[in-house]
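Format notes (please read before filing issues)

Several people have asked whether sequences and structure tokens are stored in separate files. They are not. Every record keeps both together, in the order shown below: the sequence lines, then the token lines. Line labels are part of the format and must not be stripped during preprocessing.
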Amino acid sequence: MRHCIYPGTFDPITCGHMDVLSRAARLFDKVTLAIGESPKQPLFTPEQRLAMIRPNIAEFPNVTATVFSGLLVEFAMAQKADAIIRGLRELSDFEFEFNMALMNRHLQPSIETIFVMPNEQFSYTSSSLVKQVARYGGEVAHFVPANVAQALKVAFKK
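Then the structure lines:
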């Protein structure tokens, strides 16, 4: 069985993340969406992010979600994963992701990194940008699942 890890902070999960996830679910027998700690100050706790993600992955029978900490490649090895899936929205993502993939390969050569491009309609959407729009009362329903849009409204309620 081919198993991949789709890691991210998912603070919050966006439609672009969901698009990459759907592509990974078609390519692999099993996908683990792995919610990592954020080096930035996250809006939502890992447990809140997991709770927001679970209803949105219910349509994918081969996808599970969990929280992890520490090195991604160590988590991937513990999960017996074959690959790591990373979404690339734009060219500027590539440099960071390429360096991360090379480091992961150095740490664990048996784990492959696969880059997946989301649908172009999501290429400019990021969690940070969505939070910024929501913070100032902008509509984000086209960029995130409905339960996430509601959670953002509650989080930024003034």
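For reference, the curators noted about this record: The mean pLDDT is 94. The chain has one domain: 3-155.
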